[in-house]
Amino acid sequence: MGYKSRIGILAAVAVVLIIIFMTINASGNWDYVLERRGKKILAILLTGGAIAFSTLVFQTITNNRILTPSIIGLDSLYMLIQTAIVYFFGSMTLTMMNKNLHFLLSVGLMVMFAGVLYKILFKREDSNIYYLLLVGIIFGTFFSNIASFMQMLIDPNEFFTVQNKMFASFNNVNTELLLISIAAIAVTVAYFMRYAKYLDVLSLGKDHAVNLGIPYDFVVKRMLLVVSILVAISTALVGPITFLGLLVVNVTYQYIQTFRHRYLIPGAMLISVVALVGGQLIVERVFTFSTTLAVIINFIGGTYFIYLLLKGNKS
């Protein structure tokens, strides 16, 4: 079966799941149902696509298939920002804050952090991507510990506001944020297209890429900036989903079985959409909202991550 046929099957499955999600138990209330469920589907398409896209690019430039962009600490920084707002200004400030302002603040600080991190680390001639990952892990742990310390000091009632930000949710997505997210993702992808031609060579590793004439540091810095922006947008839109990218990208490698990113990227985005729409159907129709989609994905993704580690150790 060809690559295009495999992507076509994924697209067909995604369309069928979306139609089922939009129409199941509608009971004739089409105006209300289509508008409400349409927002969820749009949020799933944006979030799933951004996470799959960014994770695939991140694994290509790091040449490692068990890493996700969350390793550089953006998820922890997002939680620190939410906790700091509640700690210093109270939960009402976070609840009543203009959604667009909150979105721009969260995305802006995460992208600024990533930009400063890359600027400082890539100043050195001998800096490499693994040094960046190591520093990212340290910053992520630092942000997480500071957020935990603040959460222990705030009022228990206000902690519930912070707790709601800890898990991804597609149930209360703001329409205004969807429009801003679409615009931001479109600009980021347009910028990425200038460097998309280098991805197949970058997947061979730094030495091969340099020997083949690729301006490695120049391209990698811009790819990391694209990854950071996409992760920041998806996290600020619905919340952190740690293992989704790891899960869908590794399934994509197994299913598509090619090194060409022109097939891998759409394949990963479609698998991500299938996983999120199918998962949301299970949460709503099987578990009747007794759990969240993020919990299911993190459980399956965490189990798959352990499998990858054991498989790599055995080989």
Q: Could you walk me through the main structural features you see in this protein, from its secondary elements to its overall organization?
A:
Its main location: membrane. With 315 residues, this protein is an all-alpha fold. 78% of the residues lie in helices and 0% in strands. It has 14 helices and no strands. It has helices at 3-23, 30-62, 74-89, 91-96, 99-121, 129-153, 156-164, 175-192, 199-202, 206-211, 216-238, 244-256, 261-286, 293-314. The longest helix is centred in the first third of the chain and has 33 residues, at 30-62. The chain is globular, with a radius of gyration of 20 Å. The model has no long low-confidence stretch (mean pLDDT 83).
